[in-house]
Amino acid sequence: MSNHFPVDRALFDDVMVPNYAPSSVIPVRGQGSRVWDQQDREFIDFAGGIAVNCLGHCHPALVSALKEQGEKIWHLSNVMTNEPALRLAKKLVDRTFAEKVYFANSGAESNEAALKLARRWALDVHGEDKTQIIAFKQGFHGRTFFTVTVGGQAAYSDGFGPKPGDVVHAEYNNLESVKALISDKTCAIVMEPLQGEGGIVSPTKEFVEGVRELCDQHNALLVFDEVQTGVGRTGELYAYMGLGVTPDIMTTAKALGGGFPIGAMLTTTEIAKHLKIGTHGSTYGGNPLACAVGEAAFDVVSDPEVLAGVSKKAQLYIDGLNAINEKYKVFSEIRGKGLLIGAVLTQDYQGKAKDFLNAAMAEGVMTLVAGANIVRFAPSLVIPDEDIAEGMARFEKAVAKLAQA
Which reaction does this chain catalyze (predicted)? Predict the structure, then answer.
């Protein structure tokens, strides 16, 4: 089969549904934290595929796991189990509070499973009145109709007809707003242990501990969405470990596969028993190819040296951004935890986060946004220090241009 047509940005508009507006840059290869586009221009990757590429591009451990498993077996239905799925599940259970694992292919699917489990647990244990789910404004949990309704941004869930019911939203870091909503009819509180899409907002100690206590008082489950914060991103293997608060259900995806689609929902044996045979499933979930790559990624990231390196690298980002800000006064705050960092724009630059992203791209560094007022960084957890320095120098050039304009 030959391609007698140009594969360029214009082709996207011809053949793709218009729900994305991708950059004109089309990367074709990557190595570590650098990628090259069709014109062989080099970019430093500070975006990590939105906190997914935890080991950068083409990490030898991942490439080797993919090739090795690719020569063995790719897919089996869940009528059978497989070795990579069992090995990865065992490692997840050994390294977390959880005792049981359910595999899916994405964060949204993992959250869907968590929400269905919470509802089913409540029905079985407490009866049919206990259905309320409390989530948070500006929260993000995926794009399926259930998860997007639980997510706290109406712009994403409006306009598709009647929404799943009995979902309410409190304010993050406002314990009183949770108290005002919670009752014995609440089956679960769903939260990110650091709001990602909502602006890189860390929870206060009082808030996260208070939410756990409220769940205990009202026999509700605490569900932590660790899709973005998990697998080393905050410098802990999972963010809950640094908060001293243990959830009842936790979801993980993004970095779990280091770029290969995989997600998981983790919980206790007691809660897990409510997803009995036939209550939930996934055709691809737990397939050997994804689990083999996931196991390789998990092995590398859970190395204590890699986890310790996250905080050191985070400090390089914070120092670099502060130095840029001393010159150009564009940020009001640098916040986040580990290598999930948000640079909040000042009043003068409100609504211009995308301009920073575009200017950075033009200088050869890939960044992200978290809303219209925050530039987000979620690089590889093993990005070399020299790539941080080079990327920061390029980012400074972009900031300088915007500041002059």
Answer: N(2)-acetyl-L-ornithine + 2-oxoglutarate = N-acetyl-L-glutamate 5-semialdehyde + L-glutamate
